[in-house]
Amino acid sequence: MITLSNIEKVYQTKSIETVALQHVNLLVPKGEFLSIMGPSGCGKSTLLNIMGLLDVPTQGTVEIDGHTITSYKDKELAHIRNEKIGFVFQSYHLVNDLSVLDNVELPLLYRNGISASERTRLAKTALEKVGLSARTKHYPTQLSGGQRQRVAIARALIGQPQIILADEPTGNLDSVMGEEIMNILLDLNRVDGTTIVMVTHDENMAQKTERLVRFFDGQQVSDAKVFANLQQV
Ligand SMILES: Nc1ncnc2c1ncn2[C@@H]1O[C@H](COP(=O)(O)OP(=O)(O)OP(=O)(O)O)[C@@H](O)[C@H]1O
User: Fold this and answer.
1) What is the interface pTM, i.e. ipTM, of the complex?
2) Which end of the chain is less congested by CB atoms within 10 angstroms, N or C?
3) Does residue 90 have its Cβ closer than 6 Å to ligand 1?
4) Which CATH fold topology does 2-225 show?
5) What's the pLDDT band for 230 if we cut at 50, 70, 90?
């Protein structure tokens, strides 16, 4: 589903050159739930941004569901992103002036041929899936952190993406809410077959996924199936 080949990312500012990623080769098969761990600054978010076509590598190629991305124009990248990828961030990235329902509908505003009533129906279905049907008219500031993250997940899945990229989705939540969010992601993976790549600092959350890749200083240092989950199969 996602193939990264020989990825390198160098950030060049006035006098400083930072090598954020080097020699990254990673294949994420369709339907896998992969977690990525590593110390602060090792390149995890950069990697996720490159996978999500939000950033371009300095070298290497990215393949998403059969599309090899080398020199696509912004418009084409936006199209693939909008059709195939849902994003979930640590700090939710909700629009505070919009209701829960309107936040969830947002990604569909950029799709052609979907009427307003269809958008609303799909948003309600997505909110139902994350257990937030009773909060459609609330605003983000009236919700708990866990509820806000559930809205963000509903927004990520309204376009029925094949891939969800989650950057520390439980990072701002206490352990109970973190578990709730993790269970929603696990369901999306196991029941709907959504491919998920999750960056996390939480070893417990990573151990619930199928495979764990560790990074250090921009490079993969380990890549292993999660043993506990292998035994469950
Ligand atoms: N826009 C940028 N300009 C210059 N350097 C950057 C930029 N973004 C990231 N970096 C550098 O690239 C390296 C990797 O950053 P990245 O945010 O990917 O790390 P991370 O592993 O996600 O860290 P954290 O766990 O703290 O979020 C860091 O050294 C960072 O300072």
Assistant:
1) 0.97
2) C
3) no
4) Rossmann fold (3.40.50)
5) low
